Amino acid sequence: MSALDILLVILRIAFGAFVPLSFVAVLVWMERRGAAFFQDRAGPNRCNVMGFRAGGLIQNAADGIKLAFKEDIIPGHIKHKFYFILAPMLVFITALLCFAVIPFADVLIIGDKHYIMQAVPMDIGILWFLAVVGFGVYGIILAGWSSHNKYGVLGGLRAAAQVISYEIPMGLALVALLAVYGTVNLSEMAQFQGRLLFGFIPMWGFVLQPLGVIIFIVAAFAETNRTPFDLAEGESEIVAGYHVEYSSMKFALFFMGEYVAMFVSSALIVTLYFGSYQIPWFNTETLVAYARPVVIAIMLGLPVVGYLFGGWIKRNNRSHYYRENDPRQKETTVYIALLWSLVALLELVLLIYLVFAHGGVADRILVALLQIGTFLFKTFLMCFVYVWVRWTLPRFRYDQLQKIGWEKLLPLALLNIFITSAIIVSFG
C-alpha cells in the first residue's frame, strides 16, 4: 500500500467514527433548542464559559463533564454485574458500527486507483445494517434483565416486542427497494440515484418507492425508540424503563447510543431514499466537468449565506429586556466576527483553487468534499424531522403501537412489494 492508500483508509475510518460522535453534541443541542421553540421557552441559556454560551452548546459540555465524573453506582441487588456493564456498551457500539457501511461521497478516482468513500467498504452494506441494528436490541434486553428491576424488565420486553413488530415491515420495505436498485451495495444504490427519470426527474428512492419510504421511516422511528415509539422508556408509567438503574457513564452511553442511532438512521434514510450525496441534476461527472462554475457559484453564495446566518444569530442571541453592559451583545459581536472570518477563509481557499489548483485530481477532491457536505446537510435535515416528531406527537399506547406495526405497516409493506413487482415485470 502506498502512503496515499494508508492516508485515505485512516481518513475514512476517522470520518466514520468522528462524525457520528460529533453529531451527538449537535443533536442534543438541536433537541433542546427545538423543544424550547415548540414549547415557547428559552431552552439552555445560562451555562457559559467567560460569558460565552455558544447558543446552549456549553450546557452540553457541562452535562458531559458531570456524567463523566459522577459517582458510578451499581446497586447491591444486581447479581449479573458483567451483563449490567456490557449492556450500555453493546447499545452504543452497535449504533456506531451501523455507520461504517454508509457511503458519504462517490468513488474518488486518483490516477488509476478508485477509493470507495465508506469507513468500511462492504458489498453487503444493507445486510450489515440489518444484522447490526437487530443485534443492538440485545443490549436493551440485557439492561432490563440484569437490572433485576420490574420496570427495567418491562422496558426490555417492550423493546423486544417493538423490534419484532417493526423489523418485519422494515425488511419488506427494503425488499421492494432492492428489487428496484438490483443490489444490496449501498454505494451502488447511491450511484443509481444519480440517474434521471424521463430525462428530468432525479431517480431518488422516494420517487421510485413513495409508499416504501413512509413504511421505512415509521419503522426507523420505532427501531430507534424515539417518540412516539419510546415505550421502552415510558417515563410516565415505568419510570425510565431499561436504564432505570443506570448512572454516570453507563447512562451516558445509553444516552449517546440513542443519538448516534438517530444520526445513523437519518443517514441511512438519506442514502436509500433521498439521493445520498447526490445533488439533483448534477451527478459526479457533471460536477467534475463544471467544477470551475460550481466554485464561482459557491463563492457568490457564501456571503449571502453568511448574511442570513448572521441575522439569525442576532435574532436568537438577544435579550428580551434591556440591560446595561449586556454580555449577550459582546457574545453576538464575537460570533458574527467568527462567522465572517470563516466565510473569508473559505473564499480564500476557493480563490486559491481557482487560480492554482484547477483541474485534474483537485477537481475530484473538490467534488468529493462538496458531496460530503451535501450528505451531511441532508442527514441534518432528517435529524430535525426526528426532533420535530418527538415534540409534536404524543406517545402511542402499547396496543396502538402493536396495531400500527401488524395491522397497518405489514399489509402496506406486502402491498408495496406486489405493486413494485407488477411494475418491474410490466416495464422492465
DSSP summary: helix tally: 15
β-sheet strand percentage: under 5%
Strand order of the largest sheet: 1-2
**CA distance, first residue to last residue:** 42 Å
What does this structure look like?
The protein has 428 residues and is an all-alpha fold. The chain has one domain (3-281, 359-427). Helices cover 70% and strands 2% of the residues. The strands form two sheets. It has a two-stranded antiparallel ribbon. The radius of gyration is 23 Å and the shape is globular. The model has no long low-confidence stretch (mean pLDDT 83).
Q: Could you outline the blueprint of secondary structure elements for this entry?
A:
Elements: H1 3-38, H2 57-69, H3 81-97, E1 108-110, E2 113-115, H4 125-146, H5 150-181, H6 186-192, E3 196-197, E4 201-202, H7 205-208, H8 210-223, H9 235-238, H10 248-273, H11 284-289, H12 291-316, H13 327-357, H14 361-390, H15 398-427
Antiparallel strand pairs: 1-2, 3-4
Quick take:
This protein is an all-alpha fold. The protein is 70% helix and 2% strand.
Notable traits:
428 residues; single chain; 2% strand; 15 helices; two-stranded antiparallel ribbon; mainly alpha
